[in-house]
Design goal:
four-stranded antiparallel sheet, about 40% helix, Rossmann fold, five-stranded parallel sheet, alpha/beta, about 220 residues, Arc Repressor Mutant, subunit A
């Protein structure tokens, strides 16, 4: 999953970025609203964490503009403003959630997962495809009841494919949602990671779940389902 963090307090921005990356997110981060708006307009994100008090462009204006342009990316407002009027104003502008500083990172992380599930119309933190079980809260994976150890990048790839179960996901979409601006596209890196994932998920199982659609991309599902 790919997240945009728009927060102008460097220590908080750094801790958020580190925490999210440790959870497998690709993270773009900026400290001013104008650049945050540019990021939101030029890239596809799974979730945006947005402060309100920002230099150059206020967070409310950032939110107002991206919603006016039809951008439906889930937005979590992160702010010290804790009055009911502030919360109502933020939600009415199109925010999907509102978290007041100070906060526990665990709560922010859980709220982001909930926003992503809602976007993909998934009701719980457990995704099940045949005998494959993915717990997006604990970030654990099992196949036929046996735990599977995945790297952060492998897990992020699997989770994104699982949220798009049964749909062809192009290499371009995968790159856009799994890597941030700092990453340099390489022609075969996604194929390599899909290969790693296929060996861990499908090897030794009669029912294969990861399928290549040549010239198109990848599908996670039971073949013919």
């Amino acid at each position: 999953m790919r997240a945009l963090v728009v927060e102008d307090y460097p220590p908080l921005s750094a801790s958020l970025t580190q925490g999210l990356r440790e959870q497998g997110y690709a993270v773009d981060v900026t400290g001013d609203g104008a650049e945050g708006l540019w990021y939101a307009q030029t890239s596809a994100y799974d979730v945006i964490v947005l402060d309100l008090m920002l230099p150059k462009l206020d967070g409310r204006e950032v939110l107002r503009r991206i919603r006016r342009e039809g951008n439906t990316t889930p937005v979590l407002i992160l702010t010290a403003r804790d009055t009911i009027a502030d919360r109502v104003a933020g939600l009415d502008l199109g925010a999907d959630d509102y978290l007041v500083k100070p906060f526990a990172f665990e709560e922010l992380s859980a709220r982001l997962r909930a926003l992503i599930r809602r976007r993909h119309q998934v009701a719980t933190s457990r995704l099940t495809i045949a005998d494959l079980e993915i717990d997006t809260g604990a970030r654990t994976v099992r196949r036929a009841g046996q735990p599977i150890a995945l790297s952060a990048r492998e897990y992020a790839l699997l989770e994104y494919l699982a949220h798009r179960r049964g749909q062809v996901v192009t290499r371009g979409e995968l790159w856009e949602h799994l890597y941030d601006f700092a990453a340099e596209p390489q022609s075969n890196v996604l194929d390599v990671y899909v290969g790693y994932l296929r060996r861990k998920i499908d090897d030794g199982h009669a029912i294969k779940l990861i399928h290549t659609r040549r010239g198109l991309g990848y599908v996670l599902d039971v073949e013919g389902a």
